[in-house]
Amino acid sequence: MDNEVKIGILIPQSKQYKTLDREFLNGFKLNNLNVKYYIESIGIGSDTQIIIEKIQKLNFQEDISIIIGFFGHHNVESVYEYASDNNITLIASDLGAVVPFNIQKQKGIFINSFSLVESCYLLGNHFEEKKLDRIACSTSYYDSGYGLLLALNLSFSNNKNIGFTGHYITPFMPRENEAEIMNESITTLNPNVVFSFNSGLYAEENTDFLIKNDLTSNYTFYTTPFTVTPKLAKHIADTNNELYITSSWMNDDSCSFSKLYKKTHKEQPSIFSMLGYENGLIVKAILENNANDAETINSLKTEGPRGTVFINPETNRTIYDSHIYEIYKKDSGEAGYRKKELLKNDGNFIKSIIKTEKPEKIGGWQNAYLCH
Fold first, then answer.
1. CA angle, corner 72, sides to 150 and 46, nearest 5?
2. Contact by Cβ (8 Å): 337, 251
3. At a CB cut-off of 8 Å and minimum separation 6, what does 116 contact?
4. Under a CB-based contact definition with an 8 Å cutoff, are residues 78 and 102 in contact?
5. Where are the alpha helices (H) located in 68-215, listed in sequence order?
6. How far is 118 from 356, CA to CA, in rounded Å?
7. What 3-state DSSP class applies to 250?
8. pLDDT tens per residue, range 183-200
9. Where are the chain's structural domains?
10. How far is CA 37 from CA 6, 121, 292, in A?
11. Which residue numbers in the chain have pLDDT < 70?
């Protein structure tokens, strides 16, 4: 391979996930590509003007035509449009925490998302199949600003027999007896299942509340990966309470990527590491096949942590199945994750959403990751 191949990487920073940038790069570089890296910081990943300026620098100053980016959701289509207009191949990642209304495919732009909203949409289908029709929601004030609840709702919006019994929101400044208030609120809602999502320091708060009030012994909880702190995982493993995770990937012991990452970097991989690794797989396939047009890139396939990595030609996005993961106690006494049920993804949710106009009065946060 030509030693002069240049790859540009745009990565954000985070106060909460302080090693996000390192983890993403470690995952990407695990592919051992014979390339030269040009790395630029883009703040918290929400200022599209900064992102476009960094793309300009990489393209015009360094003559780089393949750029990797980890972005937020706010106005990101302007970034895609700029890169496409300038014939730049952009492989973009996000956590997929916002429903991507009307973000249609553009030439040369390929999106490899963690797909949180797709996982939540597929979870809604699962609730419907299992006739779990009384759903309580539990989130922090902050996390309710993302699109996960909307995605869940979209999955059964045409079924009047299933719906939400209510939404408990932890205030920005929790009260002294917040665990007790949470217990009373959820109990009053009388659900047959609780959908809960929190992240960062709010996930840590939520962990303390759930351990104190032991709600997971009375109700079945479904959460997202960012909700489950090591402390909460240990509590569930020790008590054998019912708390499940909907996700396209978890760091379980059967994952060969996780084993390789741990062996190489002497630490467990994160979701950010995994996304970086997948993006590296895509670039590796592009370089090995000398792919320089969308048709060729769309035909490439490789195997990754979430299964077959390929770009769907209708959307220019990757498609992955999700799973329901359960937490179990390993022989070592530590908490582990394993797949319990498959949530098959036919890709139709995203195909429909990217062609649907964004509803009015939908706000939400702008940063590239959950939390600040």
1. 125
2. yes
3. 95, 96, 97, 146, 148, 151, 224, 247
4. no
5. 76-85, 116-129, 148-155, 178-189, 200-213
6. 15
7. coil
8. 999 999 999 999 999 998
9. 6-115+254-315, 117-247+322-353
10. 6, 36, 19
11. 1-3, 361-372
Contact 65, 88 (CB under 8 A): yes
CATH assignment of 117-247+322-353, given 3.10.20.30, 3.40.50.2300, 3.50.50.60, 2.60.40.10? 3.40.50.2300
pLDDT in tens, 275-308: 999 999 999 999 999 988 888 999 999 999 999 9
Of 278, 221, 213, residue with least CA distance to 249: 278
SS3 292: coil
Cα 76 → chain centroid: 16
∠ CA 13-17-23 to the nearest 5 degrees? Answer: 75
- At the topology level of CATH, where does 6-115+254-315 sit? Rossmann fold (3.40.50)
pLDDT digits (tens, 9 = 90+) for 94-126: 999 999 999 999 999 999 999 999 999 999 999
Instruction: Specify burial of residue 305 (Cβ count, 10 A radius: 0-12, 13-18, 19+).
Output: buried
Q: Helix, strand, coil shares of the chain as percentages rounded to 5?
A: 40, 20, 40
Token pair 């949470």: residue: 182
* Interior angle at CA 186, CA 181 and CA 189, nearest 5: 125
Identify the three-state secondary structure at position 26: helix
Q: What is the pLDDT of residue 368?
A: 45
Handedness of CA 279, 284, 287, 290 (dihedral sign): negative
